Amino acid sequence: MPRIRHLRAFTVDAQGGADYHDQPAGHWIDDHIATPMSVYPEYRQSRQSFGIDVLGSLVVEAEADDGTVGFAVTTGGEPAAWIIENHLARFVEGAPAGDLERIWDQMFRATLFYGRKGLVLNAISGVDLALWDLLGKLREEPVYALLGGPVREEQVFYATTARPDLAEGMGFIGGKLPLRHGPAEGEEGLRANVEVMRSMRERVGDDFFLACDCWMSMDVPYATRLGHRLDGLGVRWIEEALPPDDYWGYAELRRSLPPGMLTSTGEHEAGRLGFRLLLEMDCADILQPDVGWCGGLTELVKISALADAHGKLVVPHGSSVYSYHFVITRHNSPFAEFLMMAPRADEVVPMFSPLLLDEPVPVGGRLTLPDTPGFGVRLNPECELKRPYANRRR
Ligand SMILES: [Mg+2]
Q1: Structural domain tally of the chain?
Q2: pLDDT at 260 (0 to 100)
Q3: Of these four, 176, 254, 284, 369, which has the most CB atoms within 10 Å of its CB?
Q4: Which of 299, 291, 293, 263 is nearest to 278 (CA)?
Q5: Is residue 327 a part of any domain in this protein?
Q6: CA of 125 to the centre of ligand 1 (A)
Q7: Is there a domain that residue 27 lies in?
């Protein structure tokens, strides 16, 4: 097995890409979506106004001593590049390219004094995914084959979108709408949240499920009232209603919602112990780790096994190919998420556009992954990469 010769971390000089919140004005993804900052009226209209796009995309490249290069993209930008170049690279460079477990363990243990979750796990995830891509290329196998192989032929998708009604026509099995109003917007906001879900239900068929995403914007009493007002509208789950660390609140909310309405969370959780808390405290029916943030594929495998043993679904958050290669290998991940990145949510475009080439998208709501080695994508040479911390302290 070749050894890893170089690890490199880049930022990207282009809008969009892995930091999909970094979009031009007028994009639905930045149009008055409820957030924890919605308590402040001046930050309600735009998530970019409080800095949701401040990190930017991150590209990690791992080069083996035979010249093979694996790479991955996630968010994290310049601060994640600093952590990777100045701290994590020492555990990667010189190691055999197949030593994913040991490298992950060393990165995690060595950063415990300032890491554990958030940006550091985001950086670790980027490195881990680049190493999976490299290993796949060295073994000439797609990552899903390294994970044990597919359990079904193709995967089906639900869409996260401002227009679930349009997503139904594109073949998706359901549509998740980000709600616009949080508790600070009072009764009027609550009514508007309910009305938009009701109008979507009127426009889609009975078999098409709806869900709503609350992006950490609510509290237990509000989310409970919302759930009961939505009862009967075919809302399959209420997502991330509360701040990610409010395990107690999630457990209470899950007990309080109408029968059949599920709770989901986890896109801002990290590590197997974080997900163990969600599972053992009965916080959610569906876990949604983001493979680019939760610790990478090496950790997602463990999170998923734990969830499976608890009888819970794992439907990874966004993350395009990095999620798809996983979802196709697990029965407790029966479908995948697709983020509708067209500005008006009216067509299917690659999720991480323009950063990747060959990025697969669902057609008619379905996707069969090609057997290209690694994650099967290439970096778009038209996106300019910058390497701000090359070998700074080594
Ligand atoms: Mg979400």
Answers
A1: 2
A2: 95
A3: 284
A4: 263
A5: yes
A6: 19
A7: no
Do 112 and 174 sit in the same domain of this protein? Answer: no
Q: Are residues 153 and 236 in the same domain?
A: yes
Do residue 89 and residue 161 come from a single domain? no
Q: What is the pLDDT of residues 183-204, one digit of tens each?
A: 999 999 999 999 999 999 999 9
- The reply, when asked if residue 337 is annotated as ligand binding, is yes
Nearest to 80 by CA among 102, 54, 109: 54
Look-up of token digits 């590049």: 81
Same domain, 163 and 130: no
Task: Please count the residues of the chain.
Answer: 394
Q: Is 163 annotated as a binding residue?
A: no
Q: 179 near 161, Cβ under 8 Å?
A: no
Q: Each residue of 1-48: pLDDT tens digit?
A: 999 999 999 999 888 899 999 999 999 999 999 999 999 999 999 999
State yes or no: 325 annotated in a binding site.
Answer: no
User: Using CA atoms, how far apart are residues 83 and 88, in angstroms rounded to an integer?
Assistant: 6
Query: Is 36 a member of any domain?
Result: no
| Same-domain status, 258 and 284 | yes
391 has pLDDT over 90: no
What is the domain extent for residue 166? 146-372
Q: What CATH number has the domain bearing residue 93?
A: 3.30.390.10
pTM of the model: 0.97
Q: Give the Å distance between the CA of 282 and the centre of ligand 1.
A: 19
For residue 239, how far is its CA from the centre of ligand 1 (angstroms)? 6
Average pLDDT over residues 148-172: 98
Looking at the structure, do residues 134 and 250 belong to the same domain, yes or no? no
User: Where do runs of H (alpha helix) occur along the chain?
Assistant: 77-83, 89-92, 100-110, 118-139, 143-146, 164-169, 186-203, 220-230, 247-256, 271-280, 296-309, 320-327
Confidence of residue 175 (pLDDT cuts 50, 70, 90): very high
Asked whether residue 77 falls in the same domain as residue 180, the answer is no
Same domain, 97 and 243: no
Task: Please give the distance, rounded to the nearest whole angstrom, from the Cα atom of residue 259 to the centre of ligand 1.
Answer: 22
359 labelled binding-site residue: no
- Please report, rounded to a whole number, the percentage of residues in the chain having pLDDT higher than 70: 99
With b for 16 or more beta-carbon neighbours within 10 A and e for fewer, the 217-249 pattern comes to bbebebbbbbbebbeeebbbbbbbbbebebbeb
Could you tell me the CATH number of the domain that includes residue 244?
3.20.20.120
pLDDT of residue 35: 98
Token pair 């139904």 in the structure block, residue: 168
Catalytically active residues are: 317
236 membership: H or E segment, kind and range: strand 235-239
